[in-house]
Amino acid sequence: MPDLLFWLYLVNAILLINHEIDSAYWREWELFRLPGGITGFLLLHIPLLFVVLYGLVLVVRQSVYGLVFSLVLSLGGMFAFTIHMYFLKKGREEFDTPISKLILFATLLVSIAQVLVTIYRLTA
Predict the structure, then answer these.
(1) In the chain, at which end, N or C, are there fewer CB atoms within 10 A of the end residue's CB?
(2) Which domain holds residue 95?
């Protein structure tokens, strides 16, 4: 089971990082009204990416904190899918390309699997 959680975390992290690359293309800071433009957006992602990657290290070490990071990452993936689908339904054009939607749907599926495995590991 630890190997499964590692792979789910890694795939989800890759999908979410890819989504963040897509977010820069779509100028997501404007969508969420974040200050600082691209500079603020990029600076925000330095600690964010550190946390995501450090969580993977903790999962590999089979630390209980790795399970917490895994839970947060999977919930973050579900949130990303939900908020962007909300914006799409409101008529926003950002993330309305096949690849953007594919990344978001894949993130949702992997996040659901990851949260289930993580909860199983937390309760075992």
Answers:
(1) C
(2) 2-123
